[in-house]
UniProtKB/TrEMBL annotation:
It holds the Pfam family IF-2B. Catalyzes the interconversion of methylthioribose-1-phosphate (MTR-1-P) into methylthioribulose-1-phosphate (MTRu-1-P). Substrate binds at R53, G54, A55, R90, Q202, N253, K254. The active site is at D243. This is Methylthioribose-1-phosphate isomerase. Its EC number is 5.3.1.23. The keyword Amino-acid biosynthesis applies. GO terms for molecular function: S-methyl-5-thioribose-1-phosphate isomerase activity.
Length: 366
């Protein structure tokens, strides 16, 4: 995707062949800064502090973190240390574990002298694979969008999305936004209602920034406005991403997604989820009981950062003195509320049977 006419991915290998570079998403939309990741500790901090975020991008960053570790010390001890350090950086997104398992399985049998090259090669492959997967999700989602009848008398389709599941959450294209980008590129009149997504405002800060840079019409709304818009026929479909999807089709995504799904169900609005195969956790069925939910810092709720009138960034405290804050990062939307899952292999029902129809090789793990 492009930023002011220049094509970017969210993460890439620097010109020196060792340093990894990534867009610092904590500073968007006010500043566009590229960070250098020189060590596995840099990669861990980038994941933990959400310099990079979004399940697919977390996996890609973790893969490069393993490569940085092997560049410093390709020993067995470092391989295991890097695996554990990076695995503990974020608990909810299953792509993190998938990428680390992939790298460890590849590197462990190799002699130490071959691990650095193999790690960088595989991390680059994971990035390329993610970009292609997301492009295919976009194609498959575009097929659904073409079949929708706009409720808008002017013929414009109105989508609603929650959090950021665009190219900033992946290596390129995005998951939930990939179909929207492809629809826009195909000339389909489409407008996006962008939930602000408190407390970190990934919708207002990241999704709106992405859509603006690509020229997609959009409007930022308060998180609690979506149900009202659905009641008044101003939403044709809801589409979100997911950080972990169970074998049974339950979807874990940014906190507030469940409420959007309930409102969509009550108003007969299709609720779609875009996901790449590494986001599917085939080891669990019941998302509410089995998916670990990250509890993030209360400071994300009690403080807000924005740009002042003179262009400076400032952080302010918004709660009464002495008030506590809780900050669960994700919630789980039961499969019964999901109209369809959009993957790189096609579209399916949110169910074990639906997922296995696209991934029959996973039936062996049943």
């Amino acid at each position: 995707m492009k930023v002011d006419g220049t094509p970017y991915r969210t993460i890439w290998l620097g010109a020196d062949g060792t340093t990894v570079q990534a867009i610092d998403q904590t500073l968007l939309p006010h500043r566009f800064v590229v960070r250098d990741l020189r060590t596995m500790e840099d990669a861990e901090v980038a994941i933990r502090t959400m310099i990079v975020r979004g399940a697919p991008l977390i996996g890609a960053a973790a893969a490069y973190g393993m490569a940085l570790a092997m560049a410093a010390d390709p020993s067995d001890a470092m391989l295991e240390r890097a695996y554990r350090l990076l695995l503990d950086s974020r608990p909810t997104a299953v792509n993190l574990r998938w990428a680390l398992d992939d790298l460890r399985a590849l590197l462990a049998p190799l002699p130490p002298a071959r691990r650095r090259e193999a790690a960088y090669r595989r991390a680059a492959e994971i990035c390329d694979e993610d970009a292609e997967i997301c492009r295919r999700i976009g194609e498959n989602g575009l097929g659904l969008i073409r079949r929708l009848t706009p409720r808008d008398k002017g013929g414009r389709l109105n989508a609603l999305t929650h959090c950021n599941a665009g190219w900033l959450a992946t290596v390129d294209w995005g998951t939930a936004l990939a179909p929207i980008y492809q629809a826009h590129n195909a000339g389909i009149p489409i407008h996006v209602w962008v939930d602000e997504t408190r407390p970190r405002n990934q919708g207002a800060s990241l999704t709106a920034w992405e859509l603006s840079k690509h020229g997609v019409p959009h409007t930022v709304i308060a998180d609690n406005a979506g149900g009202h818009l659905m009641q008044h026929d101003q939403v044709d479909f809801v589409i979100t991403g997911t950080d972990r999807t169970t074998r049974g089709g339950d979807v874990c995504n940014k906190i507030g997604t469940y409420l959007k799904a309930l409102a969509a169900h009550d108003n007969g609005v299709p609720f779609y989820v875009g996901l790449p195969y590494p986001t599917i956790d085939w080891t669990i069925v019941d998302g509410v009981r089995e998916i670990p939910i990250e509890e993030r810092s209360a400071r994300e709720v009690s403080h807000m950062t924005g740009r002042t009138e003179d262009g400076e960034l400032a952080t302010v405290h918004v709660l009464p003195e002495g008030s506590n804050a809780a900050n669960p990062g994700f919630d789980v939307t039961p499969a019964r509320l999901v109209t369809a899952l959009i993957t790189e292999r096609g579209v399916c029902d949110a169910s074990e049977a639906g997922l296995l129809s696209l991934y029959p090789e996973q039936s062996r793990a049943a």
